[in-house]
Amino acid sequence: MREFMLTLHLRIHDAITAMRRAHAIGDDDLATSQAGEVEDLVELAARNGIDLGSCYDSLPLASTA
């Protein structure tokens, strides 16, 4: 289970990084797609009883601009 949790966290990190990069270059469609990936990964964690806790609570996922 430890390897699964690590992989999940890495995939979330990668998706957030890609989402921020897409947003920075103005590719809103890709940013939205990456946001969906983050949501899917968080749901996957919940379905498998993995508590992400406050790891991502303070992380700004989308710009309010």
Model description:
The chain has 65 residues and is mainly α. Helix content is 66%, strand content 0%. It is built from 2 helices and no strands. The chain has helices spanning 2-24, 28-47. Helix 1 packs antiparallel against helix 2 (28-47). The protein starts with a helix and ends in an 18-residue tail after the last helix. The mean pLDDT is 84.
Concise structural overview:
With 65 residues, the protein is an all-alpha fold. It has helices at residues 2-24, 28-47.
- The H-and-E topology, N to C, reads as HH
Q: What would you report as the Rg, rounded to the nearest angstrom?
A: 12 Å
Helix content: 55-70%
Q: Describe the global form.
A: elongated
Main β-sheet, in a few words? Answer: none
Kindly list the characteristics that best describe this protein:
single chain; 65 residues; mainly alpha; elongated
Task: List strands and helices in order, with pairings.
Elements: H1 2-24, H2 28-47
Helix pairs in contact: 1-2
